[in-house]
Amino acid sequence: MSALPLDAAANTDLDAGRPSRPGRRLPYFLRRPGGLFGAVWLAFVVLASLTAPWWIPYGVAEQDLSNRLALPSADHWLGTDPLGRDLLSRIFSAGAEPLLGAGITVLVAFGIGLTMALIAAERGPRVERVSSRLAEVLLALPSTILLLAVIGAIGVRIFIVMAVLGVMISAAVYRVMLGVAKSVRQRLYVDAARVNGLSSLRVNLVHVLPSMGTVVAVQAAQLYGISLLIVAGLAFLGFGPAEPQPSWGFMIQDASSYVFSNPWLLVPTGVVLALTVVAANELADAIASRGSVARTTVRRRRPPARVGATATAGARPADPGAVLDVRDLHISVDDGPALVTGVSFALQPGRVLGLVGESGCGKTMTARSLMGLLPDGVSVSGGSIRWQGRELVGLSQEDLSAVRGREIAMISQEPMVALDPMFSVVYQLTQPIRRFRGVGRREARQIAAQLLRQVGIVDGERVLKSYPHQLSGGMAQRVCIALALTGEPRLLIADEPTTALDVTVQAEILSLLRALVRDTGLSVVIVSHDLGVVADICDDVAVMYAGTVVEDGTAAAVLDEPAHPYTQALLAANPHVADGEPVPTRLASIDGTVPPPGEWPTGCRFASRCLFAQEQCTQPFPSVPAHGSGSVLCTRVEELSRADVTWTSAPTTGPAGHETAPAATQPAPTVGVSR
Amino acid sequence: MTAPAGATAASSVLSTPALEVRDLVVRYGRGRKARSSPPAVDRVSFDIAPGETLGLVGESGSGKSTIGKAVLGLQPPSAGTVRVHGQDITGMSLRERSRRVADLRVVFQDPYSSLNPTRTIGQTLVEPLRLMGVSGAEAVQKARSGLESVGLPGDAVDRYPTQFSGGQRQRIAIARALVCDPKVIVLDEPVSALDLSTQAQVLNLLADLRDQRGLSLLFIAHDLGVVRFLSQRTVVLYRGQVMESGPADAVGLTPRHPYTLALTAAAPVPRPAEQAARRNAREAAGFGMASAASPGATGCPFVPRCPLSTDVCVEQRPPLRLIDQSSTACHHAERVPAL
Prior knowledge:
The complex is a heterodimer. Chain A is an alpha/beta fold.
């Protein structure tokens, strides 16, 4: 139950930017067969039971003694019972009570449990402590005994009994809903509504409750099924309507004494009860399935993209001195759009290469493909990755795992997520050390302590004994780097290694990486959106935009003399001014956003946002050599450099070719581009 | 804390500050344990003049977001006062605040969780207006013009948050703050979740809106460069205490506190040669490792990391004192090296 998706917000990354019109289509849970069956069956049973007095063919007590225990026939569609009474009539006459009774239980349980949860989540720990104790008391009561005691006191008044059951179950509902409500209340829109001065009732009704809708629906549907079984169970024990009034539980009890001589008797009532309970659960499952529905629709949202729309392929010959040589790499979603096209770069031993760009430009996908760690449903669809002369594309998982960790290691953006919270640092370090280096426990511990010294941790012994939550972010990233070094790799892939860290800690981690490169001759591929980080640590840089490299070369050349308009624009948008320069009153900005995969235009993908875009930019063109060993993917680069125009010196007119803008919904920002 | 010097002091004679925070203390938790641990915010004071932007900068755990929450009333302060246009709102409930002083609003960091995914943009924008007694039709009209003022089409009112990118959502969040025509907006890391080019768009937009409408902004950020772009004055926080405060350029260019220097020196610039020089200077300065720092109960919280610290720093918490244009809480402010 813990894996339930909270609501649409939990899946925003899946359909972000994708117009998901809440139109008049079927609700998502009715689009699944289980959900459709559940809803239709429940609707049918409820309707048929409530209207039973008007349509049943026989009275519930009407006996036909010549036709006792009959099998289905034209007269009695579902057969008859030991007194010759019509089963169809009796089943649906009996239906209203359990169906309504279970409904009462659900209403009472949620009325109390959900309300209490919302109040406790809002009022904080003090109220929560009181209400949670109350819930514990309720949970500690033996509910079956209590129910029987209630029946003993007030008689078989089933709706009241079911309401009492609802009160007892409300404690369990409260428990589940409290956790959900607390997590929804942490969302910033709730705070924003409170700052706006909304009353607490409105905050709960408008902002908290709708986001809990899925969980509430799932829980309610499940509880409904359980309550139905309890009503039937009580009737089975004799706590139901008195004969000749029918009840599902008693009919089953009656049938059980004929189970060997007339097994059919059990079937109609049993099937209706079972189907109704199953229907409630199927409906719950379908409601809970929201996450997986969204995922499947994302998978097949686009036809396969045209590979090689931009012709960077073969622009440069393979580099003989490189340890890592990536040629014309294509990565795409299976049966979906391309995420990366025609990416080529080479990495010399002992150098640091930066892959830089905004989010959604394919830099993380490129980095992950080097280790064969692409997410499910995404794969390399073309090109080659040669590691020390060996082709990695197409290697089996076993062959790749021989390379992974031993030759190529990785550190990620979130050090706290990369470490397992359940295990101590020493365990997490010695396990791979023993596997990679084939040493014993004691020696592995010594190596672990030495690795921690190598990553600049002074009190290594204390850190070894710690668990991840006891470490600060910077310390955890150092441990992650030590972990990456356990296999003595020759290449380290660092995906935004300092983005989650404070700026002073970032400087320390970058210094550490630089020292490692200097001392061990390690090569590093670093993914970053921060041009300052790139300037600090990278020897070479490849600027990526919409799945392709638009400019590459040495870091000094690319950052000091950017040739591509996108690189120029990124640098101009950086608010960090050089020492001694005045702070600009406006920052240069780029209109619009990066077009998502599958919506890349032919020709230059930056054209729709570029100040210098012209007709020729919409046609495919090859990249041209620049910065010595590097390249630039801009068809107007010569022209622009001759005219000495850069992004910041450009006229303030809006970008040309706005008709090629990725989405028609894209507004033209009010902000200009002048400085 | 002494009143800030220069232009601000002059203008605050003319008018009461838009926002005035005095000796704010915030402790999390309850009971003896909370009282014995250092507070999240420790005696912080500052003023924001009408039309002025104050940058609140510091690393994680510096208490900057807590100050924002205390100002907004989302976190009750343990001591101190918060005044908006001279009116004390410290103990007021959020509901009371919105009825009596409708001029304090907020823009949060995360553009994804700051908009309710189940409500249209129009519903989100109209909500606070209706609460202020604006009629339905007029509220929708205001919502449309609010969206247009942040560079979005007015017909976005009928759409849902998922249909917008991060930068667009942040514009919507700004529009939500603006529709009520507030005087003071608290901006809690409004651009740190955005890409560089989008960040520049949003920063330009904020600067424009501030200048057009004479807004006072409390701009909370971890990035000194971003703060310097938007703010006239900067307050630097470390472990809940004010380390330095003064004109943004003075704090950015001539830090008077070693912590400000550490922050400035650590922020990388995208020019390799200059960055290499800065890096060498930073490494030569000899700052202690950030992760090993756990200060004593008395004295300056920055002691474990400070290359200038002496015995007096361990024993006495330095008071804020005015040097040139900045107030700084450092016994050795005169010895802080230039950048």
